[in-house]
Design a protein that fits this description.
The protein is an alpha+beta fold and about 280 residues long. It has one domain. Strands 5, 6, 7, 8, 9, 10, 11 and 12 form an 8-stranded mixed beta sheet that branches. Strands 1-2-13 form a 3-stranded antiparallel beta sheet, covered by helices on one side. β6 and β7 form a beta hairpin. The radius of gyration is 24 Å and the shape is globular. The N and C termini lie far apart (about 55 Å).
């Protein structure tokens, strides 16, 4: 026998079907991001959006602490803090490209490739709200200081290795390969990405801050002197099978170098730690 209208109403009230169900709380995109991959505090990292992923990028070049020392010991590396950033924070230098990449991988992170690095410095200079790894909005003044530490024209010079290695595919035709996103396999760096290099600019010159999907600059700057935030100098990769990438700034300019020798090292040349929060 069907319910009467009054019976149906009482049943709805009894079961609570007349009440709006509570909605699931929205996920805060800037909530604290904690990972075993981090070196130091979550506040020491910057959330860098990468599509549907978030990369946590250290605000600073890698410094020696207990966790880093443990990773260095497992790689049989002898490390020390050799230089300071302008804020007085020490960082590791005297480390070549191979050991820099291996160290970050041993720390369950990675070294930024060219695209990630250029995205990072563009993000720092974007004026957008930027959050740290604990979900706190970072003050604009701090963002500017981080950006200046990387790109400002001043002494002392400072630099960092990047995850990009260039090899010759066809020297006669001027074709190169870019290797990046390296992994550590039985103690050897093995690239996840091996691609024909797309490099629109095949000369040393100032370039505009626009980059292709490999992080290579795409247009020559109309201003051939350094203007921070508008251009930087670019040393193109050589066809020597011995060129890797890094970024440097000093009292004259800032420049993206794609022909550093991977076995070189200096006290001023460090590396920055990063890791994926979600992938």
């Amino acid at each position: 026998m069907p319910y009467t209208e009054e019976e149906y109403k009482r049943m709805i009230e009894y079961l609570g079907l007349d009440k709006e169900k509570p909605k699931a709380p929205k996920e805060d995109p800037n909530k604290p991001l904690v990972s075993v991959s981090q070196v130091g505090k979550p506040e020491d990292y910057i959330q860098l959006p990468q599509g549907s992923d978030i990369i946590l990028v250290s605000k600073y070049r890698l410094s020696l602490d207990n966790k880093v020392q443990e990773a260095a010991n497992s790689l049989s590396l002898s490390l020390s803090n050799t230089k300071q950033e302008q804020n007085g924070r020490n960082y590791i230098g005297n480390i070549d490209w191979f050991d820099a990449l291996k160290l970050n991988l041993e720390l369950n992170g990675f070294t930024l490739n060219l695209k990630q690095f250029t995205d990072f410095i563009m993000f720092l200079n974007s004026g957008e709200d930027i959050y740290d790894g604990a979900g706190n909005k970072i003050l604009k003044e701090e963002i500017r200081n981080i950006y200046n530490e990387i790109t400002e024209k001043r002494d002392p010079w400072r630099a960092e290795w990047l995850d990009a290695d260039f090899k010759v595919k066809n020297k006669a035709l001027g074709k190169l390969i870019i290797n990046y996103n390296h992994k550590l396999v039985n103690g050897v760096l093995v690239p996840d990405n091996i691609e024909d290099l797309i490099w629109p600019i095949k000369k040393d010159c100032y370039v505009n801050l626009d980059f292709n999907n490999q992080g290579m600059p795409t247009t020559e700057s109309s201003v051939q002197n350094y203007v921070q935030g508008s251009n930087f100098y670019h040393y193109y990769p050589r066809d020597d099978n011995n060129s890797v990438a890094g970024f440097r700034a000093d009292s004259g300019w800032a420049y993206l170098v794609c022909y550093w020798t991977p076995g070189n090292s200096s006290a001023e040349l460090g590396v920055r730690h990063a890791f994926f929060h979600r992938k």
